[in-house]
Every structure is written in structure tokens, then in C-alpha cells.
Specification:
Number of helices: 1
Structural class: alpha+beta
CATH class: Mainly Beta
CATH superfamily: Immunoglobulins
Number of strands: 7
CATH topology: Immunoglobulin-like
Number of domains: 1
Shape: globular
Largest sheet: 4 strands, antiparallel
Strand order of the largest sheet: 3-2-5-6
Distance between the termini: 57 Å
CATH architecture: Sandwich
Length: about 100
């Protein structure tokens, strides 16, 4: 009985710590499209703070990507893909607990 109670307590406290660590974070989601409006699969997406890369990911088959968790602030987003010119968007604001949409 004591073992079950201790296990439950550890589980609840562990969940609370994980949940509190996520509070205050933001997310950027978006879609990368070429000049004709077609999605670009497997493009590289980098979140930059000045010249420092904070996070990075690649797009899926539909050109969609998600970057998280991100501390609130203002960032730049850089997209690169073989055969295409690298593009950069500046001044993307990220708010706590919010999802920011960004389309290239």
C-alpha cells in the first residue's frame, strides 16, 4: 500500500514539474512554399537570435514545420533548400503560450 502511494506521489510531482517547465514557452508553425505556391518538402528552417541559431527543423512532405519550445522574444527565421536562394524573415514575435504562424 505504501509503495502504491509513493509511486502515485512521484508520478504526480513529476508531471507537475514537466508541466511547469512548458509554461512560458511559445511555438512557431508555418508552411514553406515556392514562388508558384507549391509546398517545399524537406527544406531547412532555422530560428535565429541575431547570428546564433536557437532551433532548427525540416519541413514535412506538405512543406509544414513546427519549432518549439521557444522563449518569448523576437527572432529571425531562415529557410534554405538545395536549388533555391536562402530566404530570411526578421522580427518574428513569439509570445508565452501562443502559436505564431509564419508562411514563406
Amino acid at each position: 500500500m505504501l509503495r502504491k502511494l509513493l509511486f502515485t506521489l512521484v508520478l504526480v510531482l513529476g508531471s507537475a514539474v514537466i508541466a511547469s517547465a512548458q509554461v512560458g514557452q511559445g511555438t512557431i508553425k508555418g508552411t514553406i512554399k515556392d514562388d508558384s505556391g507549391e509546398p517545399v518538402p524537406f527544406a531547412n528552417v532555422a530560428l535565429l537570435d541575431g547570428s546564433n541559431q536557437i532551433l532548427g527543423t525540416t519541413t514535412d512532405f506538405d512543406g509544414k514545420y513546427t519549432l518549439k519550445p521557444i522563449q518569448p522574444g523576437t527572432y529571425d527565421l531562415q529557410v534554405s533548400y538545395v536549388g533555391f536562394q536562402t530566404r530570411k524573415t526578421t522580427g518574428i514575435g513569439v509570445s508565452s503560450g501562443k502559436i505564431t504562424d509564419s508562411v514563406f
